[in-house]
User: Fold these one by one.
Assistant:
Number 1:
Amino acid sequence: MKFRAVQIFATAALLFSFTGKAHAQFDFLRKIFEPPVFSVTRDLRTYIRTELPPVSHDRESELHDIDLIYLKAMELSRRHVSTALLAASIAVLNRTDIKPTFPLLGIVTLPLPAEDSAGAATRIDKLPRYIFPDSPQDKWGDSDKLVHFFGSAYLTYESGARPIPEAVGKFVEKGEVALKLDTAADPRDLFANSLGQEFGRALSDGRNALPSDYLSAKYIKK
C-alpha cells in the first residue's frame, strides 16, 4: 500500500511537470504528503536565520534565545510537543552534512534535510552558543550542545523513560568517535543530554517548562 502511494505521487509529479503550473501543483502535493516535522523544521530554520537576535556573549540572553526557538517550534507545530522537539533538534544542527568514515567504504557523506548553503551558514551563525558558564569563547562555543539537549528531550518525551535516551546518548557518543566525527567522547555532551532528559520528562509530565529552566540550573564545570 505504501509503495502504491509512492507510485501515485511520483506519477502525479511527472504529469504536473509538463504543465505551466508545475511548481504550484507540486508544492500542493508536497504539503499533502510531507510529514509535518519537515515543514516545521523548514520554517523554524527560517525563523532562526531571519528573526532570532544576533549571538551575544551574555548567557542570560543566549538562554532566552533558546527558549524562543522552542516556543517558535511549538507555535509552528500547533503545540504538538513531539514534532516541536524533533524539529528543533534538526533546526539547531551546526553542520550541513555528516561525513563519517566507515570500514571498507571510507568517507561517506550523509546529507541532512535540504537547506540552501548560504541560508545554512547564516542560520548556524545565529545559533546560541555561550550557554554554560564554561562555554568555549570561540566561534562555535557550545552550539553543538543544542542538538544534544533537544534530541534527548525528544527521546525522553517519546519514550516516557530515562534509560532509553541515556543509552542512546552514550551510543551516539561512542559512535561519533568510532566513525571519526569526534576525537573523543565528550562528558559535556552527555551532561547536555541529561539536561535534555530532565526537560523532556517535565514536558511528558505536563509541566509548563522551558529549556532555560534546565540549562540555567546548577552546572558542574567539567
Number 2:
Amino acid sequence: MKNNSELQSDVQNAIKWEPLLNAAEIGVTAKDGVVSLTGVVDSYAKKLEAENAAKKVTGVKALVEKIEVKFPDSWSKTNVEIANEVLTALKSSWSVPRDKVTVKVENGWVTLEGELPWNFQKDAAKRAVVYLTGVTGVSNNIKIKSETHNQIEKRDVENALALNWSMDDSDIRVAVAGTTVTLTGNVRSWYQKDEAGRIAWKTPGIWFVENDLAVDYYYEDED
C-alpha cells in the first residue's frame, strides 16, 4: 500500500537512478496511481528512459507524459539528414531484415512502417533509432505477419507466463483466436503488464497481442 506522496517519491528515485537522466530535469506528480511527467530533455532517448523508469515502479497505473525534447542549435539536423541516419542504423542492426522497413521523417519525428515476421524485430527497429541525435519521437507502425503457420496453443502461452518470476502474484487469463492472443485479468504493476505482453509476443505464429490487463493496486488515503 502506498499513498500519493510515496508513489511520487518512488518514481522520482527511479528516474534519478537512470544514468542517462542524471542531468535531466523531470517533474513528477502522482494521484491515485496516475503519474504525470513534465520537463525538458535534450534527447528522445532520455524521454523514453524517464517513461520506462516510471512504468517499472509498483503502483503506477497510468502515465501522463509531457516531457519536451529540445536540442541545442548545434545539434539541429534536417529531415533528410535524420532519414539517412535512420536508414543506416536500421541496416547496421542484425535483428532488422534488410529493405523491410520504410522511414518517414517530419520535424524530427520518425515513422517506421512495413511488415516483419517477429515482434522482437519490430522492437529492434525502434531501438536502432531512438538514440540518434535530432530524433524528437518515433511512431513504430510496423505490422507483424508471422511466417510460421503453426496453430497457437493457449496452454503454451499460459506456461510461458507461469515460468516468469515476475508473474507470481498476477491473475492473467489467456484467450486465442486465430493469430491473436488476448490477455485479460489483473496484475500488480505496469511492469508486469508490459512483461506479460512481451512474453505473449514470443509465441510462434502470432500476429497480434491484445493486452487488456488491468493494473490493480490500492492506495492509502492521505489525511
